Amino acid sequence: PPGCSIALRGPAATLTGNPFEQPSRACLATHDDALVVIENGIITAFGPYAALRDTLPASIEIVHYPDNLIVPGFIDAHVHYPQMQMIGAFGAQLLEWLETYTFPAEMSFADAAHAQRVAHLFLRELLRAGTTTAMVYCTVHPHSVDAFFAEAERFDARMIAGKVLMDRNAPAALLDTAQRGYDESLALIERWHGRGRALYSVTPRFAPTSTDAQLDAAGALLKTRNGLFLQTHLCENPGEVEWVRALFPARASYLDVYAHAGLVGPRSMFGHGVHLHEGDFCTCHQSGAALAHCPTSNLFLGSGLFRLFDAVDPRRPVKVGLGTDVGGGTSLSQLQTLNEAYKVAALTGHRLDAVQGFYLATLGGARALGLEERIGRLAPGTEADICVLDPKATPFMDFRAGYCSSIEELLFLLMTLGDDRAVRATYVAGRRVYDRERAGDPFMP
Ligand code: GUN
Ligand code: ZN
């Protein structure tokens, strides 16, 4: 079906502007008793219940969430679905962590049945966390991409993903070649890009695992269709940055390696960017490229503190999304990720307020992906991907919520204490695909 018709009633909040450029209070629209009207998977009206009740189509079902908070579905700008099985791996920084844990885990995706099992679990864990769009790394195996998009299609979820490209500096079982990576990616683009809500991202893992020839091939792939994305890692860890300098001595910077191959543009998403300089921020700003802030990962792997407030400096703002980076990150919950983002901001001398936090997880992420006309807000004409939060999810949260006197305070409570338990329901294209209270299987594909 082309999406559902339904109306959701209850307290609601949505971002309407960029709180890194305007006062936060001017960027959040809230209603204590709102109605979100959805027809054929698209939001057709959003506003006070009292104003909209008489305009409703006669037969439409109204689902009432009087004790919850209706918000746009979350957007995860950077995540690796094959790393579910080694999340929380002990004791290593990036390069040793890749060798010891990550590459062995990704090798197990040579088995297509394994890829399907993990894709099945991953999609459900995303929806359980209230995440309705994610930008996803698969493995080098093309069938890992098929498994992921096939699972996403069952929910009609707007997902962006791609086959990892690696032609050096990884185990032989995980290597393609520049030509083979190009051919396999092109076949996947033809199969998936624009099919239903699927979008394809060309996905060179990071500069150290691709030759110049492969990075050039990635640049050529981007030109094969309109609207293709690019995702890779950038300046995450000091040892990695040093290695890139040694591997590409002719390039002015790590970002310049990608720029040289034509990989820095408006739908490019660079993970981490912890160790960037002012010139790199300017390059991102001018090109429209975005950064994925991955605080749980940057803390867990000891990578460093992302300078969010420098990145979004209104004098040359860089678009930033919020990434969980599982399995370097430690949670698929954007609420938990905001919890750590707040602390990273604190350690760099800034205060990330709740409106700014929810911006990163919703509208900011959509803008970083160039998808703000489609997702990231409760607004007429956008796709009805919605998360229903429960600020009283646990006895302790219930107790603490009693001391909140505004929606902003409640949002901040959700971003410090919240996790997947605080997601009451998730809607994708107007369909309730996850319902915490539903007996048996809470998922409805
Ligand atoms: N850099 C290259 N590959 C990876 C990965 O899988 N995770 C993280 N966090 N950084 C990377
Ligand atoms: Zn990553």
From TrEMBL:
Pfam families: Amidohydro_1. Pathway: Purine metabolism; guanine degradation; xanthine from guanine: step 1/1. Keywords: Hydrolase, Metal-binding, Zinc. One of its GO terms (molecular function) is zinc ion binding. Residues 70-433 form the Amidohydrolase-related domain. Belongs to the metallo-dependent hydrolases superfamily. ATZ/TRZ family. This is Guanine deaminase.
